[in-house]
Write a structure and sequence with these properties.
GDP-mannose 4,6-dehydratase, 4-stranded mixed sheet, lyase, binds NADPH dihydro-nicotinamide-adenine-dinucleotide phosphate, NAD(P)-bd_dom_sf, alpha/beta, UDP-galactose 4-epimerase, domain 1, binds guanosine-5'-diphosphate-rhamnose, globular, 10 helices, 339 residues, GDP-mannose 4,6-dehydratase activity, Rossmann fold, NADP
Amino acid sequence: MAKTALITGATGQDGAYLARLLLEKGYDVTGAIRRNSQPEMIRLEKLGIAAALRTVDFDLSEPNNITRLIRGNAFDEVYNLAAQSFVGSSWEQPVYVADVNGLGVVRLLDAIRTYSPHTRFYQASTSEMFGLVRAVPQNELTPFHPRSPYGVAKVYGHYITVNYRESFELHASSGILFNHESPLRGNEFVTRKITLGLARFARGEPVPVELGNLNARRDWGFAGDYVEGMWHMLQQEAADDYVLATGVTTPIRDFAGFAAAALGLDLEWSGEELSEQAVDRRSGKVVVRVNPAFYRPAEVDLLVGDASKAREKLGWAPKVDVKALAAMMAQADYDDWRG
Ligand code: NDP
Ligand code: GDR
């Protein structure tokens, strides 16, 4: 019999890649999808798998909905990827973000504990929990100091997963994943904002991309690699927590440079902090400029992960480096450009 898996957040970036991976492995996959005024299956359609998974109505804020779903299906594996995932807007909706990203996790875990304790559970934790730098690189033992309502809510989600594992012997694992991107990344995240803007520029619409803090550094990998790590975590005999990261950190400015180079643009940076901008040496036009509106109330300045535990215990390693990732995303946006 095929294994059964539930993916919450199946319409998101990671949900789409994970659904494809599990389908390739022969799973019977259910995508838990919240109702929108228009069905949002774009990413699943792009990967050619929209018709291959069963979908169910789902919202992490609704306990009865979750209980019925878990009680009625007894899934082998549940991957909780659903969240309000954009850090920047979490200061505007802190209570909702706490409810979905924090309490949503315990709603799922409690339904599993009560109705389906054999189910293996994956929680989408995040490097945003580290926040203020306490150690470089960050691993599973680095203390947390989140810097946004998003990060604070995710710390709750992380610890309640650990607590349900320890209290009720659930097979519940938490993946502390550093930033991972792809051509399916949401348009508002900095990498995709850059590649969409540069593709538009390279296509002959020279509107500068406006960004916030260019000095922040992130450890960026490819989402397709990271969903493999999620799956490996649930195949282990014992549940545990793992960092997934590349171990390489890059400033926003350099990511823009890599994406620009892939599109034949040659950036020259000038100015300091709020007046900084990049001009394309060939056309002489401004490609990127800073707009203070995109700065955050509190920033995570430096993330770089140590994934040696995942490498040793899961045999996991990322395959795509940051330059190849920037080029992949820029090329995809250039090819998809509709003008
Ligand atoms: P996306 O924003 O692309 O996807 C988030 C998904 O959650 C969407 O399917 C969204 O549905 C769904 N969702 C949002 N709110 C609710 C709700 N109230 N009830 C049910 N579903 C909801 O995120 P990613 O795919 O990038 O990330 C997946 C998970 O991993 C998230 O939990 C994120 O916080 C976490 N994470 C991501 C990292 C990254 O770099 N990508 C790194 C570390 C952790 P809809 O389409 O309707 O909006
Ligand atoms: P992040 O991703 O907050 O790390 O969360 P994002 O791409 O939004 O920001 C990364 C860094 O870039 C700086 N930045 C800008 N960010 C955006 N979005 N727009 C801009 O114009 C801009 N200019 C500079 C930010 O200040 C920040 O330092 C992502 C999400 O996927 C989370 O869900 C996940 O948990 C973490 O990654 C790991």
